[in-house]
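Customer ticket, subject: "Can you confirm the structure for Cytochrome b5 heme-binding domain-containing protein?"

Message body: Hello, I'm evaluating your service for our small team and ran a test protein. I'd like someone to confirm that this is what the system normally returns, since I don't have a reference to compare against.
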Amino acid sequence: MEEKITSIVTDDRIDEIFHLNATKEELIIILNYIIMDYKKFSMTDKILLQSQKLQKLAIEECVENRHVFLFLPGVKNSMDIKSQKEVRYTYEPKEGKILKEKYRNGRKTESTEVTYEQINKMLGSFNQGTGAFLQSKPNFAESRFIAPLLPQEEVSKREKVQVKGGQLQYVQQPRKNRPAFKNYTAEEVSKHNKPGDVWTVLNGKVYDTIIQGESKS
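Agent reply: Thanks for trying us out. I re-ran your input and got the following:
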């Protein structure tokens, strides 16, 4: 019978936890140990865990999944489980200890043993020190997480909306047909402040903002 493994996957790293000889509580300790490592390396307390079906997972739910995808703010995760990752860690529970091995590009570079007691001490120290500092930092907006690629069938359901006007249309015009740039004074711009006639200044450039229908955010 194939041994059950939970894999924590990012674009360049994978952490594989072997379930054999470990209780669910011990597996959760290992998961917290892995997540602590990511938080320390990336200096963030904001980590998102998802299943292959794009469902957000609590730590306790991760051990029931074969693959768990870990997202950090502003870091891409294409949810690729087929290609070899640059860094791979394995965690094999053995009689109250964990054999932790590190592989880089398929070659084993480290092998250490750590007890659950040692891990709990590290987690406690992290939560009191570094973790408290990270929690005090301003929260990242959800938009800072880069969304995973959707399955192709989901993408095909989306309707394409044609955008009229804007910068792209200007760029695509032949140079000879492009309107000439003109300098405006602040007084001239301030006169255009009525519905249907709104001018906006952005980075030193004046834009004629046309609002049609209901605005969408």
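A couple of notes from the result: Helices lie at 24-42, 59-62, 116-128, 130-136, 152-157, 166-172, 186-190. Residues 68 and 165 are 42 Å apart (CA to CA). Feel free to reply with more questions.
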